[in-house]
Amino acid sequence: xxxxxxxxxxxxxxxxxxxxxxxxxxxxxxxxxxxxxxxxxxxxxxxxxxxxxxxxxxxxxxxxxxxxxxxxxxxxxxxxxxxxxxxxxxxxxxxxxxxxxxxxxxxxxxxxxxxxxxxxxxxxxxxxxxxxxxxxxxxxxxxxxxxxxxxxxxxxxxxxxxxxxxxxxxxxxxxxxxxxxxxxxxxxxxxxxxxxxxxxxxxxxxxxxxxxxxxxxxxxxxxxxxxxxxxxxxxxxxxxxxxxxxxxxxxxxxxxxxxxxxxxxxxxxxxxxxxxxxxxxxxxxxxxxxxxxxxxxxxxxxxxxxxxxxxxxxxxxxxxxxxxxxxxxxxxxxxxxxxxxxxxxxxxxxxxxxxxxxxxxxxxxxxxxxxxxxxxxxxxxxxxxxxxxxxxxxxxxxxxxxxxxxxxxxxxxxxxxxxxxxxxxxxxxxxxxxxxxxxxxxxxxxxxxxxxxxxxxxxxxxxxxxxxxxxxxxxxxxxxxxxxxxxxxxxxxxxxxxxxxxxxxxxxxxxxxxxxxxxxxxxxxxxxxxxxxxxxxxxxxxxxxxxxxxxxxxxxxxxxxxxxxxxxxxxxxxxxxxxxxxxx
Amino acid sequence: xxxxxxxxxxxxxxxxxxxxxxxxxxxxxxxxxxxxxxxxxxxxxxxxxxxxxxxxxxxxxxxxxxxxxxxxxxxxxxxxxxxxxxxxxxxxxxxxxxxxxxxxxxxxxxxxxxxxxxxxxxxxxxxxxxxxxxxxxxxxxxxxxxxxxxxxxxxxxxxxxxxxxxxxxxxxxxxxxxxxxxxxxxxxxxxxxxxxxxxxxxxxxxxxxxxxxxxxxxxxxxxxxxxxxxxxxxxxxxxxxxxxxxxxxxxxxxxxxxxxxxxxxxxxxxxxxxxxxxxxxxxxxxxxxxxxxxxxxxxxxxxxxxxxxxxxxxxxxxxxxxxxxxxxxxxxxxxxxxxxxxxxxxxxxxxxxxxxxxxxxxxxxxxxxxxxxxxxxxxxxxxxxxxxxxxxxxxxxxxxxxxxxxxxxxxxxxxxxxxxxxxxxxxxxxxxxxxxxxxxxxxxxxxxxxxxxxxxxxxxxxxxxxxxxx
Lengths: 584, 470
Ligand SMILES: Nc1ncnc2c1ncn2[C@@H]1O[C@H](COP(=O)(O)OP(=O)(O)OP(=O)(O)O)[C@@H](O)[C@H]1O
Ligand SMILES: [Mg+2]
Known about the structure:
The complex is a heterodimer of chains A (584) and B (470).
Chain A: E1 4-10, E2 13-17, E3 26-30, E4 35-43, E5 46-51, E6 63-70, E7 72-75, E8 83-84, H1 91-98, E9 117-121, E10 128-129, E11 134-139, E12 145-149, E13 156-161, E14 164-166, E15 171-176, E16 182-186, E17 189-192, E18 201-203, H2 214-219, E19 227-231, H3 238-248, E20 253-259, H4 263-272, E21 289-294, H5 300-319, E22 323-329, H6 331-344, H7 358-366, E23 370-373, E24 381-390, H8 400-408, E25 411-412, H9 417-421, E26 434-435, H10 438-448, H11 453-477, H12 484-501, H13 515-537, H14 542-546, H15 550-556, H16 567-581
Chain B: E1 3-5, E2 8-12, E3 15-19, E4 29-33, E5 39-48, E6 51-56, E7 69-72, E8 78-81, E9 88-91, E10 107-110, E11 121-122, E12 127-128, H1 133-136, E13 141-142, E14 149-151, H2 157-167, E15 177-186, H3 188-200, E16 207-213, H4 224-238, E17 242-248, H5 250-263, H6 277-285, E18 289-291, E19 297-305, H7 314-322, E20 325-328, H8 331-335, E21 348-349, H9 365-389, H10 396-413, H11 423-434, H12 447-453, H13 465-469
Parallel strand pairs in B: 9-16, 14-19, 14-20, 15-16, 15-17, 17-19
Antiparallel strand pairs in B: 1-7, 2-3, 3-6, 4-5, 4-7, 5-6, 8-10, 11-18, 12-13, 18-19, 20-21
Helix pairs in contact in B: 2-3, 6-7, 9-10, 9-11, 10-11
């Protein structure tokens, strides 16, 4: 055992001397209380350690123990439905061992060691296998089958493979490599969080990640394997949008990271997800979800680690060939944790006190997303999408975290407090948001949703743009200066905003909207517009058009149940007949 | 073992550096004895092998390097507590200032507390009726919520906070409640207002007050809210009480933090506030909440004055990022004579959705709320237009919206300082206002509620304020 000693304590940063063989990012245990820490700087005999737990009451002279291991996560059956802190300690277990408050030095295995899983082999004795090959699976939850893969760095021939109930540390297979040595394969693997898990190669994303949110799917879509950010001032709806995506998107695995945010928001997920039914699998949402909760009042160094813990677990499921969505709320708190640690290290600060490496850290985090050809001989494909919230101080997007994020992500959902004040939710600004995936997805959408999709989208975007210009005019000279056609544009734009974009996350029918229904609603609105345009040329007044009873049906269209989509046909007919009757 | 030193090497702002220290711990409590015999308290901020940086709560005036003695007490700062604290008044570091006896402690608690395990939390969803329409209907407060008041200098936040403290109740239940009040750097007048208001209403019996006034030591403000919250945790989670905590004024708290940070020569974040301000505030605010299986709750109302009424200033900004909404007071409404001058549009209660509706408030609540918000917003917008172009430029329907928004401020937002409206009364006022609009405009309300609740005995023509007020 090493006999290293603390020589300095400043908040979450501790300096120790005498740690032999210390390596960067090695995990150490600090003081007799065995607080978990990680080496983040080495200077001759001195190691600077960020400590993942509160350091009060710790002082110079106390011992530091090395573990010779980098900060790693445990991977194996039992991850699904768990809630972990930033360094993968299971919060449900901690509650039962140490009570309602998180006390220091608490330890628990991330993956249950006692539980037995039914291991179902899919390979057999004599098979030749390489890293990443799936040799069997266990039913981890009612919807997720965890595929058991040959760990990275091992290949050879299966000497034995067993079918039985196993714990994660039992040996399930024996592999003999070329040198003739035997490797025991267990379901439990470990992986250092700061190192991306390897894959064969990256492929361009081609399919949308459907979220059930109209503004996102129809106007600014994200892909399976894509990246998006949601910046917005406080209360503009970042968390609600991210919860909506976690609930309704068509990924198979969801990783939600509450990074430096509110405790109650995690509770909300914990109470709600087991109750809500996934529209794709028909099973409770919790059965595909893993939560990482390092709330704002939990130690700041563990907050820094939480995004890495989350993404490594996400990569693990991607490697099995799943579509994984990682939702991080909020990446700004992660950046601030970096800033705090950097400040304690007395590093030369960059912009607004953030460390100079902020940009690289952000981009290398988002680079861990993508559609990938995974390791293994079967060429399976997995995707990992990342949606990150950004909380810019004062809502000012020129700040470093937003700017560095925008440099790497492909989708920008810009939340505006001005919309939130009007209770227009989701408060995604249609004029400034964008998705760079749009052109790549056109074909998919046209084929899967409706041929006119792209045309419809572009027309409605043009109307919204025109509305903004017309509003300028109205502000200067009043609405009377507008032509009837321009008044119609304003009406239709309002309809697009209120009857299509506005989507109530708390309404049981409206919270999730299938792409089919999204398309149908938008089609109604545009159909009304185009038909009205024609009769306006014949001199029909805007008042007469606005008074048509079918407008009320368009307003209520979002509340039509998914099983009654036939109703849209009838409304379409009514639109045509009612508008044409105005010329009688 | 208590260690005593005469080895102060530096004094800078609120900080002293003590040398040749042995076995001192991070955040250890420190006693500083001046040559005059005066004793001050402090806390270790940084510790190396033979040197400790200590912040002195009462400031360093009069500290010298040769005669001042420093004692390290071998423990972190603790609050001695028992149920006897109810009805008592303490200074900002927890010493009685009401001529009562010392507290005989049932236990001593580390004032920093520990973070609540997110898994142990229960979601706040019990509606608190404050009797104030603009809060109850539009920005509903629930038990265990943290909902700050963003105010400005000269605005009536103190009145509003004490009205909330006085009137708050959970419908249909009689339960043990308490108020914990922490003042940081407020004036004698303001503190006195709270104390006498609590006395007047008898609330003082159920209150614990920690008072640090404007002329009390600034750095002490860093521990005052921690004392208060530790006390609240004890009352709520060990004694099963529903505790309302009022912290005022958080702006002064943040300034004290900034002072210490500057003295440590830390890299400043925005406007000179330390980069860890968010985390620091979160360790206070997140102590509010509910815990599964515990009867008591902590509801937190921090009050802060926004410098220049600027919501993007770091103090309101970071607070808003942590709390579950905010009540924003408006100078404009205050000048119009409207009390409480709550600007409902940028105000928000994030926990309202699970605290309202059938069996909690009333089935039509969510619909009425959304409709009032949307209509008021539209009316305000139209009014802005009218300012530039004149009333005549408005469409007929926009004129109705303008009328609604004016009435809304006058009869819905405005109410008496002792006026305690039930949630039904508040909702009904909302419905009366909505009669100003044609029925078709009530797009956010379900038809069945319109049928059931929309008053029909009010003529749709010519409604003036008085007709609505009736
Ligand atoms: N789609 C929505 N439907 C209905 N209400 C919404 C929607 N989005 C947001 N809201 C309302 O806005 C409030 C604030 O949203 P949210 O908590 O997501 O904000 P945020 O941007 O995450 O803020 P912060 O940065 O402080 O965490 C919610 O509590 C809810 O009342
Ligand atoms: Mg949020």
